[in-house]
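Extended Data, panel c. Modelled sequence:
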Amino acid sequence: MLPLNHQNKLRERYRQINPDWCPSGEVFEQTVNSYIENTNHILDIGCGRGGLSEKLGKQGKQVYGLDIDWDSMLSHRDSLIRLCAGHCNFLPIQSSAYQVIISSWLLEHLSDPLTCFREVSRVLEPGGHFIFLTPNKNHPIVMANILSRLIPRLQSILVERLYHRISADTFPAYYLANTYRTLQMLAQQSRLQLIALETINDPTYTAFNEILFRTSIAVDELMPKTWGIHLVGVMKKTDYLQS
């Protein structure tokens, strides 16, 4: 398995080749920051061990983090973040409580995504935004992860590669909310509107050596833009169900 620090070095090399490119984590962070200027209260669903929540806390934002894995949340380094163990299908939060809800590496684990999206919609204020980062089911590596369910050890390796999580933090992945079409459908059924969806490519996932790095870049350039390995999206709460 390629160490994350080496993968990040390859990303910097790729950025030099494509100066306009940013890895999905940076795109997600930039997107979130563009929507939180007018609010100090943010809900992070599936907050895990921290990540962006901790950065937002250092900016003075009041972050409420929710996750089903209490052990992961105990690893948070920012004591100002309010934490709650709970499931996204049953958010222990009053309706219309937040202008912004964020989520990274959660949607792929939803076995019942419609219930989760409707809960997100309920908790959002009218006009509020849900911002998410998730794998793109159309990408060959993600498809390989789906097929690797037949070989559990292989899937564990792929999950660690895709989500940068240790094996203790991995959960079953269903990929039921991981294409433009399914996200659009879920939004329409949840009083949400999908207003932005960006696909981000990243050739470093299979760059185990220099030849594979260059090959991965070439393959990424040949693939359809809609096949980028990650999705960063924004949904806006509406007052009506869309047809």
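The first helix runs from residue 4 to 17. This feature is highlighted in the accompanying rendering.
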